[in-house]
Amino acid sequence: MRIELGGGKTAKWALGYDEVALVPGLKTLDPADVSTAFDFCGHTFKFPIIASSMDSAVNPRMAGLFHKYGGLAVINLQGVQTRFEDPEAALDRIRREPVETATALMQEIYTEPIKEDLIGRRISEIKAEGSVAAVGVTPMVAAKFLPAMEEAGVDIIMIQSTVTSPAHESSQTEPLDLKKYCSSTDKPVVIGNCVSEEVAYELMKCGAAGILVGIGPGQACTSRGVLGIGVPQITATAECAAARNRFFKETGRYVSVVTDGGIAKGGEVVKSIAAGGDAVMMGSPFAKAEESPGGGFHWGMATPDPALPRGTRVTVDITGTLEQILLGPARKPDGYTNLVGALRVAMGMVGARTLKELQQAELVFAPAFMSEGKFYQKSQKVGMGR
To answer: pLDDT digit string (tens) for 177-188?
Structure first.
């Protein structure tokens, strides 16, 4: 469906989380009888929730806790963890800085050179926790850091940038050949971010083991305002899921689609998978954990850009322990805690025994979904009115 903008120019209709809803199924299931198991890059996890490679959300300790509870966390190899022997001191400065000068301080902190010996050390620390070692890098340094990552025993490599295309051109630097990179290592390579079927399909052809979906929806991201670029996550996920299905039919190789960004509540986890995603990647919910490096603050990887910051440090406060956020029990009816429990209950209500069945759930366009009958919640700023 396209909308006429004027002068013969049209725009494609795109939907986000607040504009769709799941329809209950013909049958329902006890939440105890559903499976949230998620296969990803040769590993099986208990639930399809990944902690994103943001300094405020993941450090080696958090990666270990995620493993303990059955999930996966990704560490940022271009953040404070690899720039400082003692990253806690840098994190403390960021947490204490007044809001007016927080971005300028981070621009200063993130100019500290990355120390390659710390790449191996952080990966080793994650492995020592018993966790799958997943790391995030930008295309600019992915090839340079590969030997150090492999030597340290990295398990999953995520190549991430605001927008990743299979055919980047530059007169300033040598672009990363994604197809060559994927074939040069026996480690699974996840590539992002993208929002369209065509780009996702071409990235899969490059050898990606997974695709990250989302441009600009994150809680701390300002790319949509600064650059005017992005597609709402329900439509973006459905587009990339269509590429996955087409690629699987043609090649027999299944490439996981991970909805990355803009997800804060259990209902958004559920809708991402119902839209066709295999898993979600989340940052701000885990910056809210008592154990988080951010300590109640959250910022994205583009926030400290030296020339054009595309993010900001936001206050997210502490909502509970990581265990409460993931597995409960929830103490408030706002959807921010017990994310896995919400997923299980929703799966039961639509009759989905597995995540694959949840991908087939019926969705409806529901522009009044978040406001219908919620006058008191909104006026009192409780529940869905927060």
So the answer is: 999 999 999 999
- With a CB cutoff of 8 Å and minimum separation 6, the contacts of 271 are 17, 20, 22, 234, 363
CA–CA separation, 276 and 325 (whole Å): 24
Q: Where are the domains of the chain?
A: 15-385
Sign of CA dihedral 138, 76, 17, 246: positive
pLDDT tens, position by position, 197-239: 999 999 999 999 999 999 878 776 777 888 888 899 999 999 9
pTM for the model = 0.93
**How many whole angstroms separate alpha carbon 142 and alpha carbon 180?**
12
Amino acid present at 324: Q
Annotated active-site positions, please?
221
Which CA distances in Å does 328 have to 36, 109, 127, 335, 343?
15, 35, 26, 11, 12
Look up the CATH number of domain 15-385: 3.20.20.70
Closest by alpha carbon to 209, among 159, 172, 259? 159
Which one-letter amino acid corresponds to residue 314?
V
358 vs 147, 150, 278, 326, CA distance in Å? 39, 36, 10, 19
- Residue closest to 197 by CA, chosen among 148, 235, 154: 235
Contact predicate 247/240, CB 8 Å = no
User: CB of 115 within 8 A of CB of 138?
Assistant: no
> In whole angstroms, what is the distance from residue 119 CA to residue 78 CA?
9
